[in-house]
Amino acid sequence: MDPRRRLIVAAIQQHNNQLFQVQQLMHRRRRRRRRNHRAVWVRPWIDRRLDLGMYNKLMIELRNEDPHAFHNFMRMSPAMFDEVVNRLTPRLTKEQTNFRPNLEPGLKVAVTLRHLASGTKYRDMQYAWRVPHNTISKVVRDVCEAIVDEYLDEQMTCPTTEEEWRQIADDWLQRWNFPHTIGAIDGKHVACKAPPNTGSEYYNYKGFFSIMLFGMVSSDYKFLWADVSGNGAASDAQIYNHSELKQGLESDNITGWPRPDPLPNDTQDVPYFIVGDDAFSLRTYLMKPYSAKNLTREERIYNYRLSRARRVVENAFGIMVNRFQVLLTTMQHHAETVRLIVKACILLHNLMRTRYPVLQNRLLDRQLQNGQMEPGEWRRGQNLFDTVEVQAPNRASKEGKMQRNLIKHWCNSPAGSVAWQDKMIDLV
User: Fold this and answer.
1) pLDDT tens figures, 101-132
2) Which of 119, 179, 233, 301 ranks highest by number of CB atoms within 10 Å?
3) Residue 201 exposure: Cα atoms within 13 Å on the Cβ side
4) How distant, in Å, are the alpha carbons of 103, 410, 421, 427 from that of 371?
5) pTM, whole model, 2 decimals?
6) Parallel, antiparallel, or unpaired: how do β-strands 210-217 and 286-287 relate?
7) Contact 298/409 with Cβ under 8 angstroms?
8) Is the CA virtual torsion 399, 405, 411, 413 positive or negative?
């Protein structure tokens, strides 16, 4: 290149670099000027939080004057609320700075629980609580993460010994008259807004976007295991087939899983199992109803007995969503935040069932003295016909069919029958 031309190009580049530096300097000055002349640092109505906010006014009044209303407002008693706040305080306490004062842990827990209980949007909550909606968004995630970290090992720990698993099975037999049962499984769609760039991945067969909660519950409506990783387009069977629960049952490597032994008043060894609806494959470790076509009387009795045990998982979902009604709304959070909130709700549900086992039992299906099942309030009068209306039958293993037939005969024999079962199937 000609030397003169090279000098001209270098001069132009130097001029452009200087111009760019000047533009950057002017931009920084404009930004600094805007920061220095912002209209308000804290909006006046937010600054009066300590005097007029819901946490410092209404909740104190409810605690002192009407504990029942406090319970309805927070979905837990004052004593339970204080326990949760004390447990979460170390995880929620932030270091003070020279800027705005930090929110106290009790306020963070109260705001989060109220959001879970009501499903109210952040922009609507900010005025009563006098906390900006963007701050509430961060607070809810922080508190839910703290709940999961604090209570996961305590409230979602599966048994590790054969005696503990057998105790769970004994509870099923005493409460629901079904032998060798470890848990009941089912899935529930939790509605959410459509995540960006996901197509139909979250769109379910019911016609809305959702994530899937798949769980296994004990006889007293507590979650023993749960998976919230599924998307709405997946079915219950798909999520179960890819879950660690099925892998553990198939490989027989669940710690302490009880060895087969005879049914009550019988002599033939039968494996322990979980119960589910007709969407799942029949296996020795998973019992489901007979197909609804051409059922014999014995098969109908077996289906009725299994349905009494299986509906426990539906009742568990019903209790949880009635306590935390954010699960009944179309949640406007990101998908990962939805999963986090669902995890927190499960752990709080288990915590409440541990502390107050009879609370909200009016929502449950109730068995009358004549053996008839009265639907719980959460069903809003809708009866359960899972043993009559079945969907998508799957192939069953030979061993599973043999085991189901054995349990069927046991349910119809003097060893395992209950007084009201014949009357109940005659009502169908």
Assistant:
1) 789 999 999 999 999 999 999 999 999 999 99
2) 179
3) 10
4) 53, 19, 7, 11
5) 0.81
6) unpaired
7) yes
8) negative
